[in-house]
């Protein structure tokens, strides 16, 4: 197994500049000639005339993509470039469209401010990389890359992560988040036997300490997963209960219904103690017990003190009282004021994040459901029920995305605006929410998209352009779908396959380079991390039923229409002194282009916008007209990020 992992994989980083931006990126968006399944607009509906994709059997081929990092200068014809200072630039800009999120400029006085800039890589330790020195003697492991099962181990280790930090950092990642590393009988370590021990099979405390030290030397951060609503059956306190029964000093830590407590050879739903989701191997902790509360509070503090981790991702915290989490957060931050707490919460929960609440951030699955539905463009997405049916994806057009995601952002923005005082300004700003579209708990996005890499690339760019830290699940960048392939099941354990170090020749290199490019773009373009968000009006000359441009006299109500599958937003600042805006456009239609769209921006008339990112077929330079608009044509499944020339960017 040592042959499966190397320390660099050919990705070396200059010690003086470990986050050097990638050069201009060329990758590809695969276009599938797919039929739109969205119903047509009712004949009498003239309130919002929009283009509907039409079926086509023509193979549209591959559409290369270009990404330009902010410190890259490229001048090929018809491509985005960072140009010279524009003499027409004036400070400030006029607001356009509906503001959904306010800007969140850098705040040096906030020790949690770093989290807004986080680009997170999620690692499932047993399946990321084995120890370069080989497996521990005497252990029985499934071969690396074999079909995963619920109980099998494949030998991933903490030293395997450390050995591949160059690779991780080459992706543009600045924060690592791992699922639990506690001593456990399960490969995912969510069945903890001891909350204060690093599983020896993963390498133990010394290996973990070395990992954190190496992460910090690179200017990166580390967030650890904590699962505290239950233990495993092998936990030392629960084994005391099984051995001592009513005489156990720890019987009050759990919730037995009768004695003797039986934890083995019992069926689900027929267990005589409270357990998580009625699973016998997950006895629930009793948080009414002072000893339990103090122990978990000690655990939260200990990992921050002992290993200097930078935060906690807290698994399914809703079953633990809110007041406990407030104290947990207080105790952790007393050790390290910059230690972030991220709750695994579903739905819209502004009451749970921010000062005076329970957590600093949450896993914003709402972004994933909206964005997956949009890039799917009406295509029949495969559904995932791996987490109780709470992550369901419904196809939406651009207006549907704005309605749904806009409501999510608005809820957090409203709570933030109305709250007062405290670190971070009361209830959490939307830029504190961690965006994601898949994880170890869901089927992979590429599986749900039925292998449509073009849609996945657009999804990755959308996440890089949205407010809030972005999270990438290991293997997404090389095209992993499911251990069972696209035709088989995508749920756990198939979504937890080993990282394919052993099959590097099968990596999707175009996708890998795209991931690097968009992550570096987010890092280098300040507006994508700190700007507010407002929708941009984007219209074109109305079209006749056959798709051709209709004469204006046939459309007396302005003669303008939206494009159903074109989504446009602007990451903006209140003042040019705070930062330079960026306009982000995404066209998810698979068959037809948009035609010439007039996009209203917040830039000043006469300013020249350049493409920090464009798909091939999208022009690279635009002049803002007297109305603050630019005209742009978007091919099928294409995207663009427009901003001022490089020299205008000070941050």
Word description of this protein:
The chain is of the alpha/beta class. The chain is 21% helix and 17% strand. The protein has helices spanning 158-163, 165-170, 204-217, 236-244, 290-307, 322-335, 365-375, 398-418, 445-448, 453-465, 509-524, 526-530, and strands at 25-30, 62-67, 99-101, 119-123, 175-178, 182-184, 192-198, 221-226, 311-314, 340-343, 361-364, 434-435, 470-473, 532-535, 538-541, 560-561, 566-572, 582-587, 596-600, 608-615, 621-623, 629-633, 638-643. Strands 1, 2, 3, 14, 17, 18, 20, 21 and 23 form a 9-stranded antiparallel beta sheet that branches. An 8-stranded parallel beta sheet has the order 12-11-10-9-8-5-4-13. α7 (365-375) packs across α10 (453-465). The radius of gyration is 25 Å and the shape is globular. It starts with 24 loop residues before the first strand and ends in an 8-residue tail after the last strand. The model is unreliable at 1-96 and 385-389 (pLDDT under 50).
Top keywords for this entry?
651 residues; alpha/beta; nine-stranded antiparallel sheet; eight-stranded parallel sheet; 21% helix; 17% strand; globular; disordered N terminus
